[in-house]
Design goal:
By secondary structure, the chain is mainly β. 0% of the residues lie in helices and 50% in strands. The strands form 2 sheets. Strands 2, 4, 5, 6, 9, 10 and 11 form a 7-stranded mixed sheet that branches. A 4-stranded antiparallel sheet has the order 1-3-8-7, with no helix packed on it. A hairpin with a 4-residue loop joins β7 and β8. The model has no long low-confidence stretch (mean pLDDT 95).
Length: 123
């Protein structure tokens, strides 16, 4: 299984970015997908998660109302739409997937990880 994340870049505060993560090499029915991020000098942080069905995605409080996670099961792709970006959103963003029918926020649950894509928000 491979995850390929893309869409990171440099954006001004208040701007938007859309991250994509394409999964390949497996059958992903029943797999939960998520985004995490890791800022310099900080631990990896859960951002958002979405189940195979796509119902009731879950967000960290720090991004709730600004970020939206979605998935296209036909394309085995998960997206993270990030609006109203803040300098504190600067981090490397990772997508991850693991076998679960429910939302998971712990990184330990996720078996497969993408390589990360850097998001830099300037003030």
């Amino acid at each position: 299984v491979q995850l390929q994340a893309s869409g990171g870049g440099l954006v001004q505060a208040g701007g938007s970015l859309r991250l994509s993560c394409a999964a390949s090499g497996g059958v992903f029915s029943g797999y939960v997908m998520a985004w995490f991020r890791q800022a310099p000098g900080k631990e990896r942080e859960f951002i958002a998660s979405i189940t195979w069905s796509g119902f009731s995605p879950y967000y960290a409080d720090s991004v709730k109302g600004r970020f939206t996670i979605s998935r296209d099961n036909a394309e085995n792709t998960v997206y993270l739409q990030m609006n109203s970006l803040k300098p504190e959103d600067t981090a490397v963003y990772y997508c991850a997937t693991g076998r679960s029918y429910v939302i998971r926020t712990s990184a330990a649950v996720y078996e497969y990880w993408g390589q990360g894509t850097l998001v830099t928000v300037s003030s």
